[in-house]
UniProtKB/TrEMBL annotation:
The gene is dnaG. This is DNA primase. It is an enzyme of class 2 (transferase). Its cofactor is Zn(2+). One of its GO terms (biological process) is DNA replication, synthesis of primer. GO terms for cellular component: cytoplasm; DNA-directed RNA polymerase complex; primosome complex.
């Protein structure tokens, strides 16, 4: 048993989590309001059997090490050391520790950044790229401060450079610097201006590479690696964090050049995200320095679903949100470069997010017409429904009412309906027994049933030997289908020995990429009565029957469309065949009812 498994065997995850928050027993598991995001209904589940936690709200999950890393902001080596002390385990000294590995990957990134920067500033290969950056308004001091570089338009320049400095191809691959090939690997970044992605400690986690001139894709980023996760990274935070604290606010833009140009112009409390969809990880990074966030993206935030999701999340974690509006046709980089005083003025005049939303619909829709009011309310009511602060909610409900000349009580009723249709948790048993319609309960009913079937199969009663016999085609989603096949293989293998299902043993047999989905499904709750073999088998039969009916109905809908097409074009022979299939399937469906 290695150190990690030994520590896990000695520390009960329930005991560890209860040092931070009270847990309540819920069946075989424990529940609590999530410690990583604000919520009223507990969706944070801890499984002592699996030694894992998972939040069905913010989707964070993992083992005792991940919990400590999330809660205390530690890296893995730090959590390993602390939990080893708690468990009384003396860690073995090995050459290939996780810490050593991460250090090597960051060292490879550092050497690559030095290589790119040298080519940009000192070598003839970088002249065109250097000219491009200077034409974009960057001076030499800024280029040096951000350690910008140039990746030559070559397949193996970086590969050769790293090899000469003692790095293995496998290390460059794991750092995301090269792409695997039959010969080993080739440079990921070619013919691009390079932006090192530096964390708050000054370590280089990855790169963003922008193509010179025209070309697609415009940007290539380091993929997800052991040391880089774009959902937990903000460009420029290493330089801007002090400025953010001093200003009491952070400006968020979308592009690296927007951030750099503004920083050079003197507005330095600014960071850039990798896309408009803000994540919890990014918000937690900012929350350490400020609770005021000024957003400036070159698109209409009200009409962009990804932006809205991030804004809703920021509201939930308690940010004071404002929007910086720019003159038509301008972006932050252009305004900061050509008119820095105007850029500063726009920052100072940032308006509260919900006022911005109201102005946005006023600008885009004719609010004197019924159609315009309908479109505006359709867009804003789902946003208003997610305002967490009650005073804010009442204030903006009044403003929306006045804007579209609609009584508050009418809007309040519509918002209540939005909230009801957007429930985050679903009672499977209730959903299962609903009338057979196409009604969506948070997600399509078909998807809900497929998920529920897998949840049941991961909770086979201990006194029951069971091997499913229905085909994997009953699942329409590939991830569910793959997990089902693996589960059947496992259940078939233990049935010969008369063994009972063990979630621990099953997880050990799984490919690592399937484990998170399995854990999430296993932690979903079912009725207590389903611990009885008789009730469980009855429930399984009901769900399988419902899915078979859904499969036949989908086939009937497809046939119906084909029949209409054949009728339109007078295909008599084909029509006879299709009608016969339709009748046969209708009989089959009747037999399933």
């Amino acid at each position: 048993m290695d150190d990690i498994e030994l520590i896990k065997s000695k520390i009960n995850i329930v005991d560890l989590v209860q040092e931070y928050l009270p847990l309540k027993k819920s069946g075989v598991n424990f529940k609590a309001p999530c410690p990583f995001h604000q919520e009223k209904t507990p969706s944070f589940v801890v499984s002592p059997e699996r030694g894992i936690f998972h939040c069905f709200g913010c989707q964070k999950g993992g083992d005792i090490f991940r919990f400590l890393m999330e809660k205390e902001g530690m890296d893995f080596p730090e959590s390993l050391q602390l939990l080893a002390q708690k468990a009384g385990v003396i860690l073995k000294r090995t050459k290939n520790t996780s810490s050593d590995k991460r250090h090597r990957l960051m060292e490879a990134n550092l050497k690559s950044a030095q290589f790119f920067h040298h080519l940009l500033t000192k070598h003839s290969l970088g002249k065109v790229a250097l000219k491009y950056l200077k034409n974009r308004g960057l001076n030499e001091s800024t280029i040096k401060e951000f350690n910008l570089g140039y990746a030559p338009n070559s397949w193996e320049s970086l590969v050769s450079f790293l090899k000469k400095r003692g790095f293995k191809v496998e290390e460059a691959l794991e750092a995301g610097l090269i792409v695997a090939s039959q010969k080993g690997g080739y440079d990921r970044f070619r013919g691009r201006v390079m932006f090192p992605l530096v964390d708050v400690t000054g370590s280089i986690r990855g790169f963003a590479g922008r193509v010179l001139g025209a070309g697609e894709p415009k940007y290539i980023n380091t993929p997800q690696t052991t040391i880089f996760d774009k959902s937990e990274f903000l460009f420029g935070l290493n330089l801007a964090k002090g400025e953010i604290r001093q200003a009491g606010a952070a400006i968020l833009v979308e592009g690296e050049m927007d951030m750099i140009t503004s920083y050079q112009a003197g507005v330095k409390n600014i960071v850039a995200s990798k896309g408009t969809a803000l994540t919890l990880g990014q918000l937690e990074l900012l929350k350490k320095y400020t609770d005021t966030l000024l957003i400036c993206f070159d698109k209409d935030l009200a009409g962009d679903a990804a932006s809205r999701r991030g804004i809703e999340l920021a509201d939930k974690v308690g940010f004071n949100l404002k929007v910086i509006s720019l003159p038509s046709g301008k972006d932050p980089a252009e305004l900061a470069l050509k008119d820095p005083q105007q850029w500063e003025k726009q920052v100072i005049e940032a308006e509260p997010i919900y006022d911005y939303y109201l102005k946005s619909v006023s600008r885009r829709f004719s609010l004197s017409s019924a159609e315009g009011k309908k479109r505006a309310s359709s867009e804003l009511l789902p946003i208003w429904a997610k305002i967490t602060d009650p005073i804010n909610f009442e204030h903006y409900l009044q403003k929306l009412s006045a804007l579209i000349s609609t009584p508050e009580n009418v809007l309040r009723g519509q918002i209540d309906k939005v909230k009801e249709s957007g429930t985050e948790t679903v009672n499977y048993s209730t959903a299962l027994r609903q009338a057979d319609t196409d009604k969506v309960i948070a997600r399509p009913r078909r998807e809900l049933l497929e998920e529920y079937l897998l949840v049941l199969l991961l909770k086979i009663p201990s006194d029951l030997t069971f091997v499913p016999s229905f085909p994997e085609t009953l699942f329409t989603q590939e991830t569910y289908r793959s997990l089902y096949v693996l589960l059947v293989l496992y259940l078939d293998s233990i049935s010969f020995k008369g063994g009972s299902f063990s979630i621990l043993e099953f997880v050990k047999s799984l490919p690592v990429e399937v484990v998170p989905l399995t854990d999430r499904l296993y932690l979903l709750e079912v009725d207590d009565k389903l611990s009885s073999s008789k009730n469980w088998q009855s429930e399984i039969e009901v769900v399988i029957g419902e899915l078979k009916k859904a499969l036949v109905k989908a086939s009937l809908e497809k046939l119906s469309a084909q029949i209409k097409n054949a009728q339109s074009f007078g295909k008599i022979q084909e029509l006879d065949i299709l009608n016969k299939r339709f009748r046969d399937l209708s009989v089959r469906l009747k037999g399933l009812n």
